[in-house]
Amino acid sequence: MEYYHVVFTLPAPISAIAWYNKRVIYGLLFDIAAETLRTIAADPKHLGADIGATLVLHTWGSALTHHPHVHGIVPGGGLSADGARWIACRRGFFLPVRVLSRLFRRRFLEALTDAHQRGRLQFFGEYTQLADRAAFAKWLAPLRASEWFVYAKRPFAGPEAVLAYLSRYTHRVAISNQRLLAFDERGVTFRWKDYREKGRTRYKAMTLDTGEFMRRFLLHVLPVGFHRIRHYGLLANPVRRANLRKIRTLLGVPPELRPTPHDTVIVDRPTFICRHCGAPMLVIDILPRTVPIRAPP
């Protein structure tokens, strides 16, 4: 089975008001992107199937700028309306990007307008006037005519490639320690990638004042309890297990084998490989966790 990589990105004007409306706007980004995929996929003119998707939120660019978008991992097909057969998409092609973009734009702006009318958005600084309904509607008008960025990338090489991708992106923070180059009286210096360049010249160093560096980093701190990985459609948590069993049956895939409590599981002694020299490292002892001190002595 093929797996496709799709990306839904918010336009810059909406990104500008998103960082102090994170829970509302990021939530809409998730839900409208999933709704768009499922609506177009269910249309008989395109695929005519109920699909599933796993979406992952990213809010940063390489230079720590605010760039909210969701990456989607989508199987190349879905179940028919009656659930009796598997409908695969054309090889190498998932869904038309232009159609996805237009529906995503319309549905997101409708949902954003509704959130504004319900008083769920807040505005500060230069955007304070957008609290007025007429001003907000006028501000949204140009966004209805502009192109929104929706991208569908080529299929992954297989399930292993999907897992490799998710392992790289699901638990990242805005910047890793490996990109930090220096911290001195000038500020913080870090490595970033300029996507407008090609080859080795795209990797550059940037130095920001400490306050500006912290401001950019904190732009990407999510609200407490906000889930940045979400599953929709056939892969939604309440129905995923039953759907996967049905899909495996329709595709003739052997059922997933899970050990029962009565099975004897032999666990080999764990071996780790040193990332510097490549030699195996053997665990010779495991120290038990100590009991925390609950009160001063």
UniProtKB/TrEMBL annotation:
Residues 52-237 form the Transposase IS801/IS1294 domain. Pfam families: Y2_Tnp (PF04986). It comes from the Bacteria. This is Transposase IS801/IS1294 domain-containing protein. It comes from Caballeronia grimmiae.
